[in-house]
Specification:
Blueprint lengths: L16 H16 L6 H8 L3 H7 L3 H16 L12 H16 L3 H12 L4 H21 L9 H21 L8 H18 L15
């Protein structure tokens, strides 16, 4: 098979090479498992030079990160009209489910990606994954438009609670074969309702001294 240079002809598929590599890698993973994917084979399947793939992704873990980025983009996407007036728990559920729904078409492969990242000998993947988790939870708070300013006691408690919920929801979602992930949806709604009751006594931080908000 001859590898051809990357270029676009008028009327050709405008999907970026980055997205094509991600999609092709997911297709290979669905057939053979995530750890069996080889970027050299992905490049050959796409008929592009390996150097072009390497310019986009340094390794397979970077492809996984690009896949999770799609979930984050879905979480941050434009919200329904009147979203800002929804109760906080509904806004949080909507954003988390948007992340999960975006990744659901390749749930099994997504779980394999996470297991590979969390494999203890893979220090180069599981350490950054902890920071990625923290960043995702912070974006989740932003997307849900929670009012407590960053760094306040309320925001810190929310981050701890939401991190626990995020990981627990992933565990349920990984095994959820119900229609439209209804089991995961009910789990998230129950946990958020419980969390709302627990945090009801904590100030929202908007009236705390400025020093506490730094």
């Amino acid at each position: 098979m001859t590898l051809i240079a990357v270029h676009h002809e008028p009327g050709a598929d405008e999907t970026s090479l980055r997205d094509r590599v991600v999609d092709a890698s997911l297709g290979e993973a669905e057939r053979h498992g995530w750890e069996a994917v080889r970027l050299t084979e992905v490049a050959a399947r796409l008929e592009v030079p390996m150097a072009a793939v390497l310019a986009e992704f340094r390794d397979l873990d970077a492809v996984a990160n690009a896949w999770f980025q799609r979930g984050l983009e879905a979480m941050l996407a434009e919200k329904p009209e009147g979203f800002e007036h929804w109760p906080e728990v509904q806004r949080l559920a909507h954003c988390l489910l948007a992340w999960l729904d975006a990744l659901a078409p390749h749930r099994r492969v997504t779980v394999e990606m996470l297991r590979t990242k969390a494999h203890l000998p893979h220090l180069h993947t599981w350490v950054p994954m902890l920071f990625d988790l923290s960043r995702t939870v912070q974006w989740w708070r932003e997307a849900a438009r929670l009012p407590a300013p960053y760094g306040t006691r309320r925001a810190q408690l929310e981050e701890v609670a939401l991190t626990g919920l995020f990981l627990a929801a992933l565990g349920v979602w990984a095994r959820d074969d119900s229609h439209r992930q209804e089991r995961t949806r009910r789990f998230i709604e129950r946990r958020l309702a419980r969390g709302e009751r627990c945090l009801r006594w904590v100030p929202d931080g908007r009236s705390e001294p400025r020093e506490a908000q730094r």
